[in-house]
């Protein structure tokens, strides 16, 4: 009886896993085979196996002069580093939110500030376009009316402001939601530490400085290293919607460069080569960051 | 001395709340502004800047948009991918997660690890594009549903939850002769509604917001997001196209809408589901990242 049960269950268990495991392979690992396009002169419609093998020609072309690779690397790194620089903001926000005494008000603030995290970048762009566009944008209209500026400014097409502006967009969208992770960490700090600090005469500010911030440091370190590990992972959707002819030189990232080469100019091989370069470099950075995390906290992120 | 500290503490409290409310305005006002623009009379609002209140009140923009076949179709496709995609993700990922908790399943650890690694593996946009095309998913509704059937992050959440369920109920069902599938469907799933709700709500928001697959591979199955994107990138010509279509809808309203009023209204329609859903389900989102954070 028991053996039959286990045997039929064995069948069933495979039925409950194999199709899904197959989907995982099909949609996540099979596309990796497409990397071979970077090593052949791929012509859409023709099989990869029938294409001419060219070795590292496309990588040489990529690193050769005239390409946009240096620009793309600079922009990707700049946006990545600015994002990391901005990351303490969500920790500070979390401390400020937990300082609000009234429970309902605190909840309301929390919900309102984290809402932008859940809208798509198309809507984010629609909002920023509405507020900052050069003709009819609300911010320009207001500043003109108050005579603070004499001509409308085109922030969306301003090359030199691009990095900071894009960082602002990310902060606006994600800060409230990131703060929630810290709020969770704050509630798990031992209350006795606060009581002890009170006895020592510490006020609100001193308690935040000497109890809350040290208590949040482990969380902060892990999240920081996670974002370092994801340094090259600039958000393609964001870059895609905010990209335009005016800000191109400061916004073209590795992802965007790859997309442009492959799906706009139809040079699939070059586009893939850019993608392979990005993936391999990212993996190296991720493992390095993971090594550091292991050293510091004994945990591993991968 | 003590009273001075109490005073500064209260002052800080007040300023803190004011600062936070200012941030709240920065996050909420954009949505509010787009809403009041979408219900303002298009003719009036294009000549007079509004800030706090709509200029007049009309639903003409919404009437026009939903009167258009292509917009109604996009809303339908968005809703369909959200419902079907969420159902498929939750069902497949939870069944997979349950089977992976059974020690008698061989290679379960290997399969689990390979699945988790997908969080860090990305082939890049062009290999992805070529592969999906090769699978025949171009302009195929399955493109919205199949690739997201198994999501590693939800797999971690759900599997962790299953492992914490009391084993006694499963055991008694097993003695009664129920097989592993029956136990999963009749006992484990009903007991796991909280975690399934978390996965469902995350998944629904993602489905509603996703547009890259639509943009690259399914131009003939446009969602609301794509319609908005097209409208943003090429306003004038899209309005012309809209107006040509509108001629057949109702001729009296045509002159009254403007590119901006239509844009605001499409933005509003694409945002509304999130604005309505998020505040009420926020605790599910939070419990989701908290479990995720503990595991990670």
Strand-helix topology:
The complex is a heterodimer of chains A (302) and B (296).
Chain A: H1 2-29, E1 40-41, E2 52-53, H2 57-63, H3 69-85, H4 88-98, H5 103-114, H6 121-132, H7 138-145, H8 162-187, H9 191-199, H10 204-229, H11 236-242, H12 248-251, H13 254-264, H14 268-297
Helix pairs in contact in A: 2-14, 3-8, 3-13, 4-8, 5-8, 9-10, 10-14, 13-14
Chain B: H1 2-39, H2 42-45, H3 60-67, H4 69-100, H5 108-116, H6 125-134, H7 152-164, H8 167-175, H9 180-191, H10 193-209, H11 212-217, H12 224-233, H13 235-249, H14 259-295
InterPro entries (chain B): MetI-like (IPR000515), MetI-like_sf (IPR035906)
Organism (chain B): Cohnella fermenti
Protein name (chain B): Carbohydrate ABC transporter permease
- Silhouette of chain B: globular
CATH architecture field of the largest domain in chain A: Orthogonal Bundle
| Estimated helix fraction of chain B | over 70%
Task: Return the average pLDDT of chain B rounded to an integer.
Answer: 88
Membrane topology (chain B): Multi-pass membrane protein
Protein name (chain B): Carbohydrate ABC transporter permease
Organism (chain B): Cohnella fermenti
Keywords (chain B): Cell membrane, Membrane, Transmembrane, Transmembrane helix, Transport
Task: Describe it.
Chain A has 302 residues and is mainly alpha-helical. Chain A has 2 domains: 2-32, no CATH class; 67-297, MetI-like (MetI-like fold). Helix content of chain A is 69%, strand content 1%. Chain A has helices spanning 2-29, 57-63, 69-85, 88-98, 103-114, 121-132, 138-145, 162-187, 191-199, 204-229, 236-242, 248-251, 254-264, 268-297, and strands spanning 40-41, 52-53. In chain A, strands 1-2 form a two-stranded antiparallel ribbon. In chain A, helix 2 (57-63) crosses helix 14 and helix 5 (103-114) packs antiparallel against helix 8. The longest helix of chain A has 30 residues, at 268-297. With 296 residues, chain B is mainly alpha-helical. Chain B has 2 domains: 24-58, no CATH class; 67-295, MetI-like fold. Helices cover 74% and strands 0% of the residues of chain B. Chain B contains 14 helices and no strands. Chain B has helices at residues 2-39, 42-45, 60-67, 69-100, 108-116, 125-134, 152-164, 167-175, 180-191, 193-209, 212-217, 224-233, 235-249, 259-295. In chain B, helix 1 crosses helix 14 and helix 8 (167-175) packs antiparallel against helix 9 (180-191). The mean pLDDT of chain B is 88. Chains A and B meet through helix 1, helix 4, helix 5, helix 6 and helix 7 of A and helix 1, helix 4, helix 5, helix 6 and helix 9 of B.
